[in-house]
C-alpha cells in the first residue's frame, strides 16, 4: 500500500475491457448480478480503464471524477454503491476520491462497465488492505457489473454461472493466458456516443423474448464447443460459433418487448464486408455486444489485409486493434 501525503492512501489499477465470444444476456438475480448462463471472453489490450482511489477521513462523501468524460448521477451512485460493498468487507467508513480514465468511448458496446468495475474493485480492495484471491475479486467485481467479473483473470476467460443463491460459485477464471493465441479483435467504432438502452436495462426485459429458452437450452453445448475450438486453435470452428452466438443473443434482444435494436446501417455494412472477405478466402468473423460497433476477429497473419478492407467502409469513426490481454492489476502511475 502507498501513502498519499500524510494520511490518505492512494493506489491505481488498470483493467481491460473484454469481448464475449459466448455472451451473457439475462440475469437470474438482479441484485447479485447472477447470470442465466455462463459466458466466455477475451480481455482486450487496447481498451482499458485506469482508476486511482484515495480514501480519506476528511471527505464527507465520495468524490468521483471521470477524466475526459462525465458520469451521470446514477453512474456516480452505482460507483459509490460498489465502494460500499468493498468498504463493508474492509470494515471502513472512509469516503474516497476516485479518478478514472478510459482510453476508448464509454457506453458504446465496448464493455466500459467491465473494465471500469474491474479496475475499481482491484484498486479499492488493494488500498483498503483487503487480501483477496482472483476468485473473490471476480465475485466482487461481478456485483458492480456482470461482465466485470471476466476482466479480473488473464487472457481467455470463462465466467461460470454457478448455482448457489448467494453467488459464491459465480465467478470468472482464466482458461488460457493472453499469450496463448495470436488473435486480434479489431473494434470497428461507428458510434462513440452513449447507447440509448444500457445492457443492464435491456436485460431486465429478457424474459419477454420467445427465443430465450431456445438460446439457453443450447448455450452449454456452445460453450463446450467453443472451449474445444480454443483448445485446438481451430479458427474456423471458433469463428462459426462466435457469429452464431452473437446472432442468437441479438435475436433474443430484437424479439424482446420492447424490441432492442442496437445495429445501425454501418453495423450491417461491416457485417456484410466481413462475410464478403470470407467469400474471398480471408478467415475473419464478427461479434457485436449491446451497441452498434463491430468486433472483427482475425488471426495475426491476416490482420493487415482485413484492416485494409475495413478502411474502405464508409461511416467508420476509428478502429481499436486489440490483442488478448492480462486481467486487472495494480500499477504505479497515478491519475492524481
Ligand atoms: O455486464 P454488462 O451489464 O456490461 O453486460 C454485458 C452484456 C453484453 O456485453 C451484451 C454481453 C457480454 O457477455 O459481454
What's a concise summary of this model?
This protein has helices spanning 73-90, 112-127, 134-144, 199-203, 212-232, 235-255, 265-279, 303-310, and strands at residues 9-22, 27-29, 34-35, 39-56, 63-66, 95-102, 156-159, 172-176, 183-189, 284-287, 294-299, 318-322, 329-331. The protein is an alpha+beta fold and 336 residues long. The longest helix has 21 residues, at 212-232.
Question: Could you walk me through the main structural features you see in this protein, from its secondary elements to its overall organization?
Answer:
This protein is of the alpha+beta class and 336 residues long. Helices cover 34% and strands 25% of the residues. The protein contains eight helices and 13 strands. The strands form three sheets. Strands 1, 4, 5, 6, 7, 8 and 13 form a seven-stranded mixed β-sheet that branches. The two termini are 16 Å apart. The site of (3R)-3-hydroxy-3-methyl-5-(phosphonooxy)pentanoic acid has 15 residues, from helix 2 and helix 4.
Which descriptors would you attach to this protein?
336 residues, alpha+beta, four-stranded antiparallel β-sheet, 13 strands, globular, disordered N terminus, binds (3R)-3-hydroxy-3-methyl-5-(phosphonooxy)pentanoic acid
Order of helices and strands: EEEEEHEHHEEEHHHHEEHEE
The number of helical runs is 8
Overall radius of gyration: 19 Å
Number of strands: 13
**What structural category do the secondary elements indicate?**
alpha+beta
Distance between the amino and carboxyl termini: 16 Å
Largest sheet: 7 strands, mixed
Helix content: 25-40%
- Which small-molecule ligands are present, each listed once? (3R)-3-hydroxy-3-methyl-5-(phosphonooxy)pentanoic acid
Mean pLDDT, as a whole number?
Answer: 94
Basic shape: globular
Flag low-confidence runs. Answer: 1-8
In terms of DSSP E residues, the strand content is 15-25%
